[in-house]
Please model this.
Amino acid sequence: MATAHVCVLFVLLSVSLAGDDVKLKYKPATKPVRLFTEEELQKYDGSEEGQPIYMAVKGVVFDVSTGKEFYGKDAPYNALVGKDSSRAVAKMSLSPADLTSDTTDLTEEQLKSLDSIFEGTYKAKYPIVGYTAARLLNQDGSPNEHFKPEDQPHFQIKDEF
Model:
């Protein structure tokens, strides 16, 4: 028991002494993460002044408000916000048909592009504020008992944190 206390104390002391040397690889969320329905996510489409701008990629909802010049009202990529735009990001498309989370039938190259942009742009620049309900729930809103993130195509555990 005393050994456990010493270990915990050592870890806490090490972390506190590290201070400014500790750097996070990804931006932390500024608010607690939450689950968004499609309807809720649509409210954050950049059309309302003073409202945050949210965009989902691969079911992960990011606050892209700091990129207002790209994602805000009348901005070049405004079509991507207020929804999960995974397919559009993968295809680098703004076509209304691609503004969806559906990534079935994408090429291997498009899936690699999606992963690269997800990691290098969104996770690197914008805080995660939640997840889309479609990742975790059935159409009727009940929990998807069969959903296992590790069984999803292109799943990486670091995507979940």
